[in-house]
Amino acid sequence: MGEMHHFTYGWLTPVLSFVMACVGGALGLRCTVRALATTGATRRNWLVLASLAIGSGIWTMHFVAMLGFGVSGSAIRYNVPLTVLSLIVAILFVGAGVFTAGYGRSQVRSVLVGGLGTGLGVAAMHYIGMSALRLHGDLGYAPLLVVLSVLIAVVAATAALWAALTVRGTTAAVGASLVMGIAVSSMHYTGMAALSVRVAPGQAPLSGATATEFIFPLAVVLGSFLFLTSAFVALSPTAQQRRESESAVRRLHDVEAGGVRFPAD
Question: Which residues neighbour 70 within 8 Å (Cβ) at sequence distance 6 or greater?
Answer without folding.
Answer: 4, 5, 8, 76
